[in-house]
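User: Second chain of the day. Same drill as before.
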Amino acid sequence: MIEDGLRIVGSAQTNRAMEAELVRIVKKALGRRPAAPRRDGTGQLVYPWDAAIAAAALTYHRTSTRVVRDLYASTARRLEPLYDELVADAAGDARDWPDGVASLSVEVRRMDAFAAGERQVVGTVKNALVDGLARRGRRLRVDPERPDALVVARTDDRGRVLVGLDLTRGTRTRRGWRHEAGAAPLREHVAAVLAIEARYDPRRDLVVDPMCGAGTIAIEAALLARGAPVAAGAAAPALWPDARPVVIAGDRDLDVLVAARHNAARAGAAVVFHRGELGALDRDRLWAMAADAGAVPERGLVLCNPPWGERLELADARLLYGALGDWWRSLGDFRAAFLVANPAFEEAFGARWAMKKPLSSGPLRGYLYVYEP
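Assistant: Same format as last time:
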């Protein structure tokens, strides 16, 4: 069956953030609103195919990991019928592949329920596409190392095998600017999700990350505010080039802070860095730093990914999270969002969350906590 959908792929539990960000981008870049998507699980959105929206998502969408054009769907459960259906679809498809595509490779995702191994599915999809396209005079070769196009096969929430063209040509969880990551770095797209879920408004919010590590949250917040292209060094203009976000990143470790500064410089992100203990970033100091940066935001927002459980003993974790809660309360009317995996956090932090939802960065199961003053 021939499909023609625009699939925005992210981590689990990120659909809401991805949809909100795409609306923001499309309204600014194209002057219209995208159609309402179908949600495929908790980490994928499916829209009717729209080349202009796909181009905007490829350039600016920070909360996703892949942008895919769905091409074919099959209800087959075995390799032979899957091959036959894909050959027929590819041969009868009037759409051409993008200019300059002479080779392809295939990647399999979420195919555990299929009655064959991953390598067998890869081989079947590759052979079917090459054979089907050849029937209509389009010759493509298989190149697993440096393909012109990447095809992704996956099972959707309806149990169908979907075959699509991965427009991002692989996951973009790494932007290219973070050369110095430090211990257990937060994935860049998850940092963008954190900002969106916390309702970050660059026009009104001063953002502070008091435990910035590699600077990922602060850098993503600053780039999100300007609507900067996802790829480091991309030639596309920012959507909001005149935006002047106030983003402050602190850490007590000088080496870590130096690395974060270098990352921000490579990303082209305007971040104010501060070295010191948590308590040094008090309310008066934060507003003074904002004034020095030439802005007076209306309100404050803490975005933070404090050390997770595997890096801390339980007693140390409780002390750290308790200190973090005391510091946040001392700021008065600042909102806050924290991404943590340690079960000790909720009690040690000592405040009632306004929102709690699963959100992970890597193998540990984490939670996003949002607090209102």
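The first strand starts at residue 2 and ends at 9.

User: Great, on to the next one.
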